[in-house]
Structures are given as C-alpha cells and as structure tokens.
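Let us work through a complete example step by step.
Step 1: write down the sequence.
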Amino acid sequence: MARLFRNILVQLCHVQIVLFLVYVSSASAKLTDEEIKSFVELNVKNVLQQHKKERDLPNIGLRRPKADPKAEQNDSHPHPFHKPKIVDQIRYSYRRYREMILVRAGAFWKGTNDPKSETGEYPLREVKVNSFYMDAFPTINAEYWAFRAKKKFVRSESEKKGWSWVVDLFLSDETRDHYSMPGSKGWAAVKKAKWDTPEGPDSSLEDRWIHPVVHMSWHDARQFCEFQGKRLPTEAEWEFAARAGAINYAYPWGDGWERKRANLWQGTWPNENRRVDGFSMTSPVDAFRPQNLIGFYDIIGNVWEWTSTAYKDRMVEHDFHTKKAVLKGGSYVDSVNGKINYPVRNGQRMGQKQDYTAANTGFRCARSAPDVDAKIKKDTTTKKPKAQREARLVRKKRDEL
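Step 2: predict the structure and record it as tokens.
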C-alpha cells in the first residue's frame, strides 16, 4: 500500500508540473476545477492498473524470476561457470592439451658455454636426472578455467594484489589513463589485470582459450599442479626435456635458429612489434610445430615457465637471499640475439620472487616416474651375462712343429 500511495503522489506532482507549464505557455488557457479533477482521477486510475500488473508478476523486487528449464539458454560465453558438468566437458574438449611425455633418466650437460651470461647458466656442468613425465604443452586458459570452476574460492596472486605487470603497448587508452602506472621500460602496473583479463578490465579471454594462462605466480602454478596430482618440474628436468637428449644444442631443434619456430619479439622494444611470426602477444600453444624430437611444444618463447628450483643470486650473500624461483624458456617479449630483453635458448634462466606475476609468465606441470626407473634398474640387474666363449683348438702349422 505504501508503494501505491507513493506512486499516486508522484503522478499528482507530474499533473501539477503539466498544469504549471500550460499556464505559463498560454495565459488564456485556464482549466476549471472540474477539468483538474478529471485529470487527477485519470492518473489515479492509471496508477492502480500499473500496480495490479506489477502485483501479478512473480518475485518482483525479491529475486530474479525462475528460468524455464525447457527454454534454451542463449549464453554467448563459451565456458560459463554455472553450466552443469562444465569441468568434465572442458577436460574432454581440451584433452589433447593435457598430454604428458615420458622422459627417461639420463645425464646431460646443463647450462650454456657463454662466459658473458649473468643469469647463472654458465658454466656447463653435468647433471643426472631421474625419469619423469612433463606436459607437452604449457597450461592453457581453458584448463585453468576448469580448475577455477571446480575450486570457486581459489584466488590467484594477481587477484589478491589487485594488479599485475602488462606490456604498455597493448593497453587501451582508457586502461592506460585510469588503471595503470608506468613501471620499467615498456611495462606498466595495471589494476585488475589477471588471468582472465590479461590486459586490464576491458580485456577478456575471447579467442584465447588455447593460449597459455598468464599472470601466474609460483604459488598459483604449484597449486594448480598439485590439484592435478602433479608438481612443477625442476630446472634440470625442464632443460633435459628441452634438449631431448642432445649434448649441448642452443635450441631444442639444434644449434641454428629456424624461423617461425617460436613466438618472440620482432621490432623495436617497446614501441613496435612487427609480428613476423604472426603474433603480437601470446600465441596458441600449438601454433608452431613441436620444437624437439620428443614432441614438446612452446619450450622456448611465448611465456616464461615456473620451475620448483630456487634461484640464488651469485653476487648476494646467502643470508640475504630472498625467496626466488627459476623461470625457464623466455617469452614473446624476448629475442634471439638478446638485444631485446633476454636471449632465448635452452640454458636461459631468470629468477623472480615467488609472488611475481606478469602477462608473460605461465607454467607446465610434471610428474615423477619411479616405476620406470625401477623397471630400468630391474632390467639391467637381471640381464644374463654373456657366456664365456670356449677355447678353440688351433692346428699348428707344419713349420712350427
């Protein structure tokens, strides 16, 4: 009833305003008391009819009307959280990108023979690695979306902080003016930049479901891998998988750089990217053919990948070390020769704090394979020794008699 009276009063005010305007516009046009009374009765009648219509509608002012279950849902979003069995559907649709490759135990020369390197990849040293499995692809946006649909209360590091690092060239004018703050050359700290809004609040994952998930911290990567029953690879495992058993190749495919094998920066940093490889930012994880003979994709280029190995600065005393982890592989803002940021190669590494997030940091998962090592050890120990060859009688020559 209170709402009804309020509506009537509003209508009366409207009538008074109309009458005032009519009076001002024409001094000769004067309404009688009967005409004013008829105006008021007409408006009251309209208010009563409107109130009756609103009363007949279900749940008005309380909650959204219940959707008809038989009606088709016209949802333009390809992966809505509220869709039933969304996790199973996504995991089936993108199952190809969860493939893991077995890397058998072995020894290799880790690092790079480049004395000028300041990232700790020099000098070369021999390292032994046990058998393990590692994802053939970096973790993609669709897989992380399914994880967040399953774990609704999980928040990534960039969501907790409220910001993350983004390449300034790819920001819209509105985001640059209202949501960002300049950082180091070419970078900006952007509010609300996270895994599903990579370049700020006005960006989305549209057409990027098979791109690597970015704005991931070391904690985010470890949390995802543990949920999948996996773990982050060590630096030695990652590099051993990249080399595919080769002794000391610079790149996963060999010593010579090949065009269109990785997503890197071409142009002038940070104002121009000529997109010679076809992409300005991240690319689909299968945009290029496998980078080595084992079948790993995007080992170098596209995004930096977290490992479980701690990073230690050589020039800092041990007691003053901060908690950093090793990133491997380089990203789309790096180059072949190192004139733009880091030179990409198998041994390249970068150390960042565990809560570091940026538009070029992602990850892939690994899993130990102790059963494979046990089988190899069993085969080597149970192998029958070669039977000793029996001595043969040799007939002596006549002149020796």
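Step 3: interpret the result. Residues 24-29, 54-77 have pLDDT under 50 and may be disordered.
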